[in-house]
Amino acid sequence: MLELILDRCERDLCDIYTSEATITEVAYAKYEQDKKALDPAAEKKIDALYVPVKMIEVSRFIARDARDFIRKIISHPKAKENPTGLSLKAMDAIHLASAVRRGLKELHTYDKKLHRFDGMLGVKIIRPTVPDLPLELASLPDKD
Fold it and tell me: For position 97, what pLDDT does the model report?
């Protein structure tokens, strides 16, 4: 699915933005998964994914917005409705703050936990889709 989305981006059919923090986040997730250093060839493949992606620099303004978002979520009315409350992880707050600062209306993610914050911080959070997706790929299950 990611390849189809990136292909659309390379053909100027859409734009993809992400926070520069994504580079660190993806490397860290890979390290956690394997409990070992990342193979240089795999790292090169990961880096190639970012070629068609427009990076949003993590400025002090985004960092402050992210901090404020974390605090805002804690006191949001939806958090009070939830028996365990709501909390926003720092990296997720950076992604949301990056999207809001860039003026994006939507943040596309497969992270189901992030969907809980849809519309709460000025950005709609939706699952990525590809128009005219081949039928065999359209029926793939979501990953948690």
Answer: 96
The CA R_g of the chain, rounded to the nearest whole Å, is: 16
Token representation of residue 15: 């734009």
- Could you tell me the CA-to-CA distances from 6 to 9, 11, 26, 62, 68 in Å, in that order? 5, 9, 17, 25, 32
What span, in angstroms and rounded, lies between the C-alpha atoms of 111 and 142? 9
Per-residue pLDDT at 100: 95
Predicted TM-score (pTM) of the model is 0.76
CA angle, 130 then 125 then 97, to 5°: 120
CB atoms near residue 137 (< 10 Å): 11
Q: Residue for token digits 């993806």? A: 26
DSSP secondary structure string, 74-97?
Answer: HHSHHHHHSTT-----HHHHHHHH
The pLDDT of residue 1 is 64
Q: Which residues of the chain have pLDDT under 70?
A: 1-2, 27-35, 130-144
Structure tokens at 135: 């039928």
Percent of the chain that is helix, strand, coil (3-state, to 5) = 50, 10, 40
The H or E element spanning position 108 is strand 106-108
